[in-house]
Amino acid sequence: MRLAEADGKALLRRHGIAVPRGALLGAGENPSDDAAAWPGFVLKAQVLEGGRGKRGLVRSFDTAENLRDARRLILATLDDADTPLLLEEAVPIAQEIFIAVRVDGTAQRLELLLAPQGGENVEQSAKLVRIPVAEPTTPGVIFPAIAKLFPRELAARLSRYAIRLAEIARQEDLQLLEINPLALTTDGSLVACDAKIIRDEAADFRHAPDEFPISRMLAERAMTELERTARNLGFQLVETAGDVVLVTSGAGLAMMMMDLLADHGLAAASFMDNLRGAPDETMTERLKIARLLAARRNIKAIVFQTVIASRSLAGRVDALVAWITAAPLPKPLFVGLAAGHAATRGMSTDQAIEKLHALGVAAFTDPVALVKAVAKVVGHPVAQPAQ
After folding, report:
1. pLDDT of the residue at 281
2. Does residue 267 contact residue 244 with C-beta atoms inside 8 Å?
3. Alpha-carbon gap, residue 337 to 256, rounded angstroms
4. At 220, which helix (H) or strand (E)?
5. Are 101 and 159 in contact (CB under 8 A)?
6. Cβ neighbours of residue 156 under 8 Å, at least 6 residues apart?
7. Using CB atoms within 10 A of its CB, is residue 215 exposed (0-12), middle (13-18) or buried (19+)?
8. If you write DSSP's letter for every residue of 101-163 in order, what string do you get?
9. What is the pLDDT of residue 301?
10. Which of 18, 11, 25, 21 shows the shortest CA–CA distance to 211?
11. What is the dihedral angle through the alpha carbons of 48, 51, 56, 60, rounded to the nearest 10 degrees?
12. Given pLDDT bands bounded at 50, 70 and 90, which one contains residue 343?
């Protein structure tokens, strides 16, 4: 779950992290009288996408009288008058710093990222350092790496600050806690001027269900009609800008297939994943959504890839055949099958493929061969391996 900046800063404030003074403004709402005394202002659209600065969704101005113009320009860019806006006091910045704590999925531990300058594309900076954060750890453990980038006194402060962020990430089940920029102000304070925070949705049961109302509202508004339908049917759908409807079960398999499609000049038009607490089997529901997606003019093919460990392959193939024969498919279908020994007691993989071939459906046990076949049929050249 990605948090809107206002919700993210509320989380930081709860843990004692300094953030600028600010107020959330609804449609047509004016700031409080206290804000009139601020030395400067920053108005930020509350959206869940990145790149707000490039899109003109963050605007600075000197006086409260300019608020109307800043608001008008932001809302005109979004073409959405109901977008919440965060009005903040401009912070006198002496130095911008990039600092983040994230989950290193490969090492299965937290990792600290730090750079002596903030801004966009800082992750590609040659001065960015990556420091593994063990549990438990102390500021002194990470200080030597930070001291290579900052003066000694500031490095010591940032070491303590980083440990606090790591502890917040653990307590709040965060996959990412990024502050960019962390402002070193002219009076020597450290202030989190922006916050990009992602919480692991699998940990929602450990937190209050009504937390982060702005983020939840924005996420709901951003969903397409089909994405809402899929959620009501018991699985998660994300529509993407692609030309191949991808039907899978589970995020790992979906990501692998999306990468394979991209390697062969194709792009997935859908990402499907399981929902926590949802029914064990939602294949029929996924296929219903796939047929609706495939009817669109830009779609060129449907890819159904399944991996079964112990469930019946025969049952899955029979359900797939029923879907295929229920009505003409709007686009060519390609099926990938991978089944464990227990799954093939009622039907072997070869028998399943033969049954699908009899219906004129291309079926494969090798996902690479499947994607190559899709690329050949829809007219995309097969990408060559990098040398």
Report:
1. 81
2. yes
3. 14
4. helix 213-222
5. no
6. 139, 143
7. buried
8. EEEETTTTEEEEEEESS-STTGGG-TT-EEEEE-SS--HHHHHHHHTTTS-HHHHHHHHHHHH
9. 96
10. 11
11. 90
12. very high
Give which of 99, 92, 87, 95 is closest to 22, Cα–Cα: 87
**pLDDT single digits (tens) 255-265:** 999 999 999 99
Joined together, the tokens standing for residue 19 give 């953030």
Smallest Cα–Cα separation from 68: which of 32, 26, 28, 39? 28
Kindly state the tokens that stand for 55: 């899109």
How many residues are present in the chain?
387
Structure tokens at 166: 């790591």
In the block, tokens 């500031």 appear at 154
- State residue 74's pLDDT score: 93
DSSP strands (E only) in 5-92: 22-25, 41-45, 58-61, 85-89
Residue whose pair of structure tokens reads 């109307």 in the numeric block: 68
Per-residue model confidence as pLDDT tens digits over 197-256: 999 987 888 988 889 999 999 988 889 999 999 999 989 999 999 999 999 988 899 999
Burial 166-197 (b: 16+ CB within 10 A, else e): bbbbeebbbbbbbbbbbbbbeeeebbbbbbeb
Quick check: 363 and 357 in contact, CB under 8 A? yes
Total H helices, total E strands in the chain: 11, 17
**Parallel/antiparallel/unpaired status of strands 41-45 and 93-104:** unpaired
DSSP helix/strand/coil, 47: coil
> In this predicted model, what pLDDT tens digit does every residue of 68-109 receive, in sequence order?
899 999 999 988 888 999 999 999 999 999 999 999 888 888
Local confidence band at 277 (pLDDT 50, 70, 90 cut-offs):
low
Q: What is the mean pLDDT of residues 277-294?
A: 87
What does the radius of gyration of the chain's CA atoms come to, in whole angstroms?
25
Per the CB < 8 A criterion, the answer to whether 363 and 335 are in contact is yes
Global confidence as pTM: 0.76
CA 74, 78, 84, 90 torsion-angle sign? negative
- At 351, which helix (H) or strand (E)? helix 349-357
Residue 387 — pLDDT band, cuts 50, 70, 90? very low
The pLDDT of residue 126: 67
